[in-house]
Amino acid sequence: MPRLSRRSFLAAAPLVTTAALRGQDAPSNKITLGFIGVGTMGRGHLGGFLGRREVEVVAVCDVVKERRDSARTMVETRYADRLKSGQYRGVRAVADFREVLATPGLDAVVIATPDHWHAMPAILAARAGKHIYCEKPLTQNLAEGRQLVDEIAKAKVIFQTGSQQRTEFGGHFRKAVEYVWNGRIGKLHTVRIGVGEPAVPCNLPEEQKPEGTDWDAWLGPAPERPYNSVLCPRGVHQGFPAWRRYQEYAGGQLADMGAHHFDIAQWAMRMDGAGPLEVIPPENPRAVRGLRFVYPNGVTMIHNEFARGADGMEIKADCVFEGSDGTILVGRGGISSRPGTVLERPIGADDRKVYAATSHHGNWLECIRAKKETICPAEVGHRSASICHLGNIGYRLNRKLTWDAKAERFVNDAAANRELSREPRAKWKLV
Ligand SMILES: NC(=O)C1=CN([C@@H]2O[C@H](COP(=O)(O)OP(=O)(O)OC[C@H]3O[C@@H](n4cnc5c(N)ncnc54)[C@H](OP(=O)(O)O)[C@@H]3O)[C@@H](O)[C@H]2O)C=CC1
Ligand SMILES: O=C1CO[C@H](CO)[C@@H](O)[C@@H]1O
């Protein structure tokens, strides 16, 4: 499969606009953004980008009318002065993301649809030459992830995966990675990841579909089924909808938070762009924890099963790194170690450092302007999502699997390889 080297990628990446280089704040020089999916996370992104002077939001899109309208109001309220003065020409609020991509002068898109609707808009955006910020886990299945990565490389657009544990959350995860990289826990042998269960088939009953919701468009590439408000809540909702639990749309908690925590694990193991050799499910076929990924460097990563301390308590965190000389526990709330002395000595000038970026949105915008690769480009986002897909397949098939991370195929296992992709519904096969 075609892959660009880092050097050729940087040399070939297109400029966002020539105007963008002439001063970030002048109205004509802003990076223009379209938002695809303005549910809970999309609205969060919208609020964040509206607060940045170097961007201008020109389009919002959702399949639910109330959300489109609410997002349009957010934009118009924020840009009220500029609207009045004629500096801003207004925001398009549309139901079909292809209309966002067709917006004249659009530079980039933010995709925050449910997971089954990430790949196609991202691929079409890349083909249209738009830079992309796309939510995690990057895809609903592994094959569409590879297609997405190859399309991004071909289009040479700047891509950021929504894996903001690499930049934000107080820098705890960055610190953990640097400590592991610099041998502070000796030789790493085990990683334990504290995330919930794999995905299950959707069994929700039919409910009355609300006016103004395009349910068929919400389903998109996923199999046809009747409306249910757990999947697509009515109106402008708060909180994170539970489409996440169901394998038709997402990868369960294993993928929802796993996309974040496995991402940090692969980073710490220096396995960005790679993957495990073996996927070994737990012996109990009904177990929903304890699956193991065995890496070529001998490290074993274990899903949601933890060692116990002398006090009998689990030594538990979002990510636990166990080495020959100590253990680092890291989560969104902080970082700690056993023994405590592991973290006493700060990372020094001569130690190996992670990519320098402390704002996820900011890093993407900066990279668009500078033609640089982001902290979490498509290949990395895809490989982190792949761990989630492999874990779900392991639990579903319930037998040991051998994985060829280069070819992205299971070895001598046609049944397992069939799990790597799915055929989208014909009318929504857009790429
Ligand atoms: N990085 C992070 O920390 C976080 C990331 N996320 C990620 O963000 C993404 C969105 O999650 P969340 O906001 O909770 O989900 P929501 O269901 O709240 O939002 C998704 C929105 O996309 C809309 N949508 C669905 N299909 C389309 C389409 N074809 N075109 C345009 N809009 C569409 C949905 O419409 P409808 O109203 O019909 O559902 C909904 O409004 C997920 O991938 C999730 O994993 C979420 C939270 C935090
Ligand atoms: O970071 C996150 C916070 O929780 C959400 C709901 O589980 C996730 O989707 C998200 O990625």
| Overall morphology | globular
- Given the helix and strand composition, which structural class is it? alpha/beta
Rg to the nearest angstrom? 22 Å
Q: How many helices does DSSP assign?
A: 14
CATH topology tier name of the largest domain: Dihydrodipicolinate Reductase, domain 2
Number of strands: 15
| Whole-number mean pLDDT | 94
Helix proportion: 25-40%
GO molecular function: 1,5-anhydro-D-fructose reductase (1,5-anhydro-D-mannitol-forming) activity; nucleotide binding
Keywords: Oxidoreductase
EC number: 1.1.1.292
Pfam families: GFO_IDH_MocA, GFO_IDH_MocA_C2
Secondary structure layout plus pairing:
Layout (H helix, E strand, L loop, with lengths): L5 H7 L18 E6 L3 H11 L4 E7 L3 H14 L1 H6 L6 E3 L2 H5 L6 E4 L7 H9 L3 E4 L7 H14 L3 E3 L10 H10 L6 E6 L21 H5 L32 H5 L1 H11 L9 E3 L11 E3 L5 E4 L15 E5 L2 E6 L2 E5 L21 H11 L7 H20 L3 E4 L4 E2 L3 H5 L13
Parallel strand pairs: 1-2, 1-4, 2-3, 4-5, 5-6, 7-10
Antiparallel strand pairs: 7-11, 8-9, 8-14, 9-10, 11-12, 12-13, 14-15
The chain binds NADPH dihydro-nicotinamide-adenine-dinucleotide phosphate and 1,5-anhydro-D-fructose (NHF).
Describe the structure.
Residues 32-162 form the Gfo/Idh/MocA-like oxidoreductase N-terminal domain. InterPro entries: Gfo/Idh/MocA-like_OxRdtase_N (IPR000683), Gfo/Idh/MocA_oxidrdct_glycsds (IPR050463), Gfo/Idh/MocA_OxRdtase_bact_C (IPR043906), NAD(P)-bd_dom_sf (IPR036291). With 431 residues, this protein is α/β, with parallel strands linked by helices. The chain is 31% helix and 15% strand. The chain has a nine-stranded mixed β-sheet with strand order 13-12-11-7-10-9-8-14-15. Helix 2 packs parallel to helix 3. The two termini are 18 Å apart. Mean pLDDT is 94; it is low at 1-22. The structure holds NADPH dihydro-nicotinamide-adenine-dinucleotide phosphate and 1,5-anhydro-D-fructose. Residues 240, 256-257, 260 line the site of 1,5-anhydro-D-fructose.
